[in-house]
Design goal:
Layout (H helix, E strand, L loop, with lengths): L8 E4 L6 H14 L3 H17 L3 E4 L3 E5 L5 E5 L3 E9 L2 E8 L4 E4 L4 H15 L11 E3 L21
Length: 161
């Protein structure tokens, strides 16, 4: 019997308590006692929250793996990762992973700085020392000028979403 490969590094989600899931279950319980629509809405939101909020972030030698609520596990092979960005936001630091197809994934782990360093090291080892995109890239979020509030532009893609 082969033992499973151990991750090179792992981290937990920033908060261990999923408030959206808890509030949705409270709404579902209230729905049991009177409003069937509330019950189904609460269960639907609870399922969505359970299946879309990562519990753990794992770095393997060839993939980034996000573990959501059981049974959902999502693996992102390193050949699909194009860039890493550490975003310094007023609500806390986050790590944004840009995929080769243009898709973005926001990671909200407890220690994003260390996680970015370890992920950069794993990507560098995977690509044989040829990995440079995003290495050391830190983006600070600045408040837009008052005349720019509400505007969006496709010219500057360094926005924290």
């Amino acid at each position: 019997m082969q033992t499973p490969e151990q991750p090179l590094h792992w981290d937990k989600h920033r908060t261990s308590l999923n408030l959206t899931f808890i509030f949705a279950l409270v709404v579902a319980i209230i729905g049991i006692f009177g409003q069937p629509v509330l019950f189904f809405m609460g269960i639907g939101v609870a399922l969505y929250s359970w299946l879309s909020t990562p519990k753990q972030y794992l770095i393997y030698r060839d993939a980034l793996v996000l573990i959501y609520g059981k049974p959902r596990v999502k693996a992102y092979p390193f050949q699909e990762i194009a860039n890493l960005e550490l975003l310094e936001l007023p609500i806390g630091n986050r790590l944004r992973v840009r995929m080769a197809n243009g898709r973005r994934i926001m990671l909200m782990n407890k220690d994003p700085e260390t996680f970015r360093v370890k992920l950069d090291e794993a990507l560098d080892a995977f690509h044989g020392g040829q990995w440079t995109p995003g290495e050391g890239q830190v983006i600070e979020h600045e408040r837009p000028a008052e005349n720019q509030l509400g505007e969006s532009s496709s010219e500057d893609d360094n926005v924290p979403y």
